[in-house]
Amino acid sequence: ARRETSFGSTVQEKLPADPEPEEETEVMEPKEQQSQEQLSEQHHQQQQQQQLQQQQEHQQQQEQQQQRIDQQEEQQEERREEQQGEKHEETLVEKQDEKREGQREDQEEPQQQQEEEEE
Description:
The protein is built from three helices and no strands. By secondary structure, the chain is an all-alpha fold. The radius of gyration is 43 Å and the shape is rod-shaped.
């Protein structure tokens, strides 16, 4: 068992993280190598996860943008219809106003005369 530990095998890894100093030096290389490999492997996995996350986020953003664009288009459509409707109404109202004003002018003169007579 002793010889196995000095080569940094699985037995060594199960020992406490703080072995005796003399063992440290012997075990250093395989352990370092392994941790390096582990690190690069972890790093690789992290990168993949990040890429996935970014892709998902990007997809979400795109979907949100698409929704926003759809909403904007809908709103613009509604606004256009409203404006057209308003314009239509406005022209109607304006025409009615003009008629009323025309009638008012016709009516105002005799009314004024009547009021003067009453006073």
